[in-house]
Amino acid sequence: MSKSKFKAMLIIFFDIKGIIFIEWVPSGQTVNQYYYKEVLIKLRERVRKKRPDLWKNGWVLHQDNAPAHSSFSIQRFLTEKKISILQHPPYS
Questions:
Q1: Which of 15, 51, 72, 74 has the highest CB neighbour count under 10 A?
Q2: What number of CA atoms fall less than 13 Å from residue 64's CA on the CB side?
Q3: Which segments within 16-77 are labelled E, that is strand?
């Protein structure tokens, strides 16, 4: 067997009802705070369309402790958009 030369990164958001949003990260793209914010903007729109009950009643986002997720600009964006965060335990 040989190693694959193709690498891909997938960002996926789901709930108990199934997949809400999938984002294939373009080859060579770093998932930094700017890219992640664009993903969150798309996610909000998808939640509004696909899960209107969550949109009206509020929803909680669970993300890991990656630097892009915990940056000040992302935290401010989530606060401004009234998206609640479920904190991820450190080192898990």
A1: 74
A2: 7
A3: 18-25, 60-62
